[in-house]
């Protein structure tokens, strides 16, 4: 048998430890003399979780790439029965955009995220096929020429000005091309079906699957006619198809008797079933329906319609890479000993502090707890009981400001890692406000539906420029390293009354409105910096369900969806960064009398990417 050197023209190198790996090592082989193993670096297929959509889109439409996806319409039992909501995915999370022109499910979609085309579809009540078509410009939809027939489940690919559409229900074998202003008849598809999925361009497209019955037929399109190619391995309909005519990835859809999680890759000659499968299988859409240069190495699936009555908001991303991607997520930490809400805190994931709190009914507490990365232990108690406090600082140099404390709520305290001592009182007392900073440069905002702002410089408090908003329920909210670098989002305005989504940054002299939260929230657990932060859970504390598990991520410009907490809660303690965060305590979602407040701690770890070698043999 030929040796490695004879085949590849070079010898296997020997290292005492694995080299620092990057893409240049792909396909190479080396010997690790310490472990006695022969190793290599090769690509692998994987689906991994991404941030959930903001709402349900079962059997909806989508297009774009895995890092710039557009999703709209579909079944949404929580917004019954069919939605017109549109969402954009930026590779990290989802944000809402302009509503689709009609509330359809099973519409066709094509194009990139900023120039999409929506084709036909079906209404929910009354149920009827439609011929309406719409164009998207990156923010809003406008109507365009109607499809030649009222259909649902039409297979579409291409662009907003050069698309090809095939099939649809009632079942037909017709196809039509769109030039940006009108539809014209084109070639006949090999079989009359609905739910065919396309990828590629108007002159070099690829289509696969369909029903009923479910088929494995696949074809290419050259701009005038369809040609049969190798059949897909798993017959399916209404899946997600991304790539181009020479390289594509097909996943999900329905394969009786239920949804399929199977993933297949087309290499221009044949289909290969990937070892990676969708965790949340179903029918719907995601990235695709256009010519994606990433071909069969990238894909996205979101908010698929699962088995009957299942409309999850899960998002999964597909990658063929040398990297091992571990998505950002919350995980359980050590529980607190005290089931309170209205607590606050600060610090880091491995050196956190929280204090105060209430169980409701006017009962407040003075407990302080310190977190070491795994468990909470008792710290020095506050000199008196209080809740709904603003916080700033670190575990060994922190502040407690205002809150539910008689008579005026203007008390400010310093924590040195073991005990609390009095600082100068604030200029105005408040409760349920936001705050952050450090012991020498702290800020508190709002509270009690006020617009006031107060700054601490290490020795005294002064009033600053009023905020351009009045709101409360900001306990646990407020992000910033100093008083002149501060972000606060959400809260509630009892005068309206309403929970709000507004978000603002303060630079030490003036306020600037930013993009709003994806969903209005109060009592959020906000941690990070003004350029990178997480806003976890929270809720409309005045009405059921009182709190949620949903989270949002801030990238310095926009709020988008983020991985959810395991335990729903609002109004608790938080700390850390957007890649290593901490939350604990809070008000439960049911909010009923006597229901337990949360003692759960959750730690957030941001997404990580690592290059890992594979072991070939053991010496």
Q: Find the structural class using helix and strand composition.
A: mainly beta
Mean pLDDT level: 91
Shape: globular
Q: Helical content, roughly?
A: under 10%
* Biggest β-sheet description: 4 strands, mixed
- Assign the CATH superfamily of the largest domain: Kelch-type beta propeller
Instruction: Using the CA coordinates, give the radius of gyration.
Output: 28 Å
Spatial sequence of strands, sheet with the most strands: 1-2-3-60
What count of structural domains? 3
CATH class designation of the largest domain:
Mainly Beta
Strand content: 35-45%
Number of helices: 1
List unreliable stretches of 5+ residues. none
Secondary structure tally: strands: 60
The CATH topology of the largest domain corresponds to: Neuraminidase
Question: Termini separation (Å)?
Answer: 20 Å
CATH architecture of the largest domain: 6 Propeller
